[in-house]
Write a structure and sequence with these properties.
- Helix content is 35%, strand content 22%.
- The protein folds into three domains: 108 residues, Rossmann fold (3-Layer(aba) Sandwich); 124 residues, ATP-grasp fold, B domain (D-amino Acid Aminotransferase, Chain A, domain 1, 2-Layer Sandwich); 63 residues, ATP-grasp fold, A domain (Dna Ligase, domain 1).
- The chain has a six-stranded parallel beta sheet with strand order 5-4-1-2-3-15, with helices on both faces. Strands 12-11-10-13-14 form a five-stranded antiparallel beta sheet, sandwiched between helices. Strands 6-9-7-8 form a four-stranded antiparallel beta sheet, with helices on one face.
- Helix 1 crosses helix 10, helix 5 packs across helix 6 and helix 7 crosses helix 8.
- The protein is an alpha/beta fold.
């Protein structure tokens, strides 16, 4: 971000209390974001109710609010602090969903708060399963045979035609929450019901299983001038079918041929441009180990576990200096 712009005070949204599925990677990313913004001369206001993180250390932000990550809290802080912009893509799915709710409620527009980095429309397109699938079809990128459902019966109907096993992927959830792989109708009914409950918009992507394929990830960045780079690629030791959060990932990949590496790299750049992401994103692929066939699994239009690994593996984003902080006064 260039110096001497209208963006002088930035509100950074963290990921809240550490829970299974999200933890240290968002603290690391959020800390780096706070320090980077301060290096640019911005005043940093941080919302994150987790005193056990580095990013809430009194040296890493100018103002820290240990308040619940709710829409009401976010609105109160915006009214009190009047930030010029908000950075929500370093707070995991918690921060992203909170920003989405504020955007839909008209809070950002009402108080003239600019969403930094990836536009909200791009976030919605990457997170919404149906929009994402439609976009991939439009740009000619392969995705597994799938359908979008909002009821359990719709999921069962699709499985009757596609066959089992079936993958359930709820929309707008973190770390595969509510999803899973079903091998029969009873399992599908149970998983789909839970997935619909987990999804804030009661929507699941039901897709044909590609379990057993290699799972490969690319950490990709794009700026507002459409300059794109792949920071690094990663390979999960476990195949598709075992969630990446439960697996071990290695950076860089160890078993890809140069042809496969370049093929997936080209696809990554194509996808991030099509989505219009500004900043970093994580793109997950399934690669058939017996052919050159690949499928796009999903795109995380935010910081992910792999973002922290990519940063450490490449030696990027290691800042050390902080300055004084004042703690946010009570909102009430």
């Amino acid at each position: 971000m260039p110096k001497n712009t209208h963006l002088r005070k930035i509100l950074v949204v963290g990921s809240g209390p550490i829970v299974i599925g999200q933890a240290a990677e968002f603290d690391y990313a959020g800390t780096q974001a706070c320090l980077a913004l301060k290096e640019e001369g911005c005043e940093v206001v941080l919302l994150n109710n987790n005193p056990a993180t580095i990013m809430t250390d009194e040296r890493c932000a100018d103002v820290v609010y240990f308040e619940p990550l709710t829409l009401e809290t976010l609105k109160d802080i915006i009214i009190k602090e009047r930030p010029d912009g908000i950075l929500a893509t370093v707070g995991g799915q918690t921060g992203l969903n909170l920003a989405l709710s504020a955007h839909e409620a008209g809070i950002f527009a009402k108080y003239n708060v600019e969403m930094l980095g990836t536009p909200m429309a791009s976030v919605q397109q990457g997170e919404d399963r149906e929009q994402f699938r439609s976009l991939m079809y439009d740009i000619g990128e392969p995705v597994p045979e799938s359908t979008i459902v909002s009821t359990v019966e719709e999921a069962v109907a699709f499985a009757e035609g596609a066959g089992y096993p079936i993958i359930v992927r709820p929309a707008y959830t973190l770390g595969g929450g509510g999803g899973g792989q079903a091998y029969n109708e009873n399992e599908l009914r149970t998983i789909a019901s839970g997935g619909l409950e987990e999804s804030p918009i009661r929507q699941c992507l039901i897709e044909q299983s590609i379990a057993g394929f290699k799972e490969v990830e690319y950490e990709v960045m794009r700026d507002a001038n459409d300059t794109c780079i792949t920071v690094c690629n990663m390979e999960n030791i476990d195949p598709v079918g075992i969630h990446t959060g439960d697996s071990i990932v290695v950076a860089p990949s160890q078993t890809l041929s140069d042809h496969d590496y370049q093929m997936l790299r080209s696809s990554s750049l194509k996808v991030i441009r099509a989505l219009g992401i500004v900043g970093g994103c994580n793109i997950q692929f399934a690669l058939d180990p017996n052919s050159n066939q690949y499928y796009l699994i999903e795109v995380n239009p935010r910081v992910s576990r792999s973002s922290a690994l990519a940063s450490k593996a490449t030696g990027l984003s290691n800042r050390k200096n902080c300055s004084e902080t004042r703690h946010g006064l009570p909102l009430a």
